Amino acid sequence: xxxxxxxxxxxxxxxxxxxxxxxxxxxxxxxxxxxxxxxxxxxxxxxxxxxxxxxxxxxxxxxxxxxxxxxxxxxxxxxxxxxxxxxxxxxxxxxxxxxxxxxxxxxxxxxxxxxxxxxxxxxxxxxxxxxxxxxxxxxxxxxxxxxxxxxxxxxxxxxxxxxxxxxxxxxxxxxxxxxxxxxxxxxxxxxxxxxxxxxxxxxxxxxxxxxxxxxxxxxxxxxxxxxxxxxxxxxxxxxxxxxxxxxxxxxxxxxxxxxxxxxxxxxxxxxxxxxxx
Length: 277
Description:
This protein has helices at about 10-30, 35-45, 55-70, 80-85, 130-140, 220-235, 240-245, 260-270; strands at about 5-10, 50, 110-115, 115-120, 150, 155-165, 170-185, 190, 195, 200, 205, 210-220, 250-255, 255-260, 275. By secondary structure, it is of the alpha+beta class. The strands form 4 sheets. Strands 1, 5, 6, 7, 12, 13, 14 and 15 form an 8-stranded mixed β-sheet that branches. A 3-stranded antiparallel β-sheet has the order 2-4-3, covered by helices on one side.
């Protein structure tokens, strides 16, 4: 998943179990491993393929996230990511002289899942990282017997209290639940001199031109926080109100400065610094 995993409150056996969990999910869902189940599905030259129970469950969640967000968090953007140049592990990414591809808009409504039977257009490539990493963080937390936290690349789940440092400064005292941040301050590269990033606008199939650099959301689970943060980022100026409609606190950073939505102010307190959730 291209990130460091940090644990709190885990003993040796739990650390080993969580490491195995992340490795298993990486093996199943990596776009950059030719032997992953995701890669095998994306290579399949027939419209219908049989997938594992884990794959079916995760894809069902990703399709649910797409429906919940009006198609903003879309699991069918594999081609768009490749056209933007994100076709290898980020540690291997380099700016290149050739232009980015045209991109491909999201088509989640063209995907049908019945049990373990997946049907989709053969030119659609799936990318499930919109839910995989956050779901894995939540599942890893469930392996802890008591209080603790699991953090992976901006996604955090905690039980029993943890102070979470926030991108851009400040901290959050997270009692129970999840926090996630979506943004483009780290995963950026250039194609033919133009900046590219991994947060694709599903309407255009191209990297979003959102006004935000970072969006942080707190929710009942890391999965819910991660999906909401991506959606709020892609919504641009409408993001704060969209989160308020769902009673989710969000903090937004842009070149013009930082803002928080009404729910953040009401639930987490102002001024920011060490806040609580």
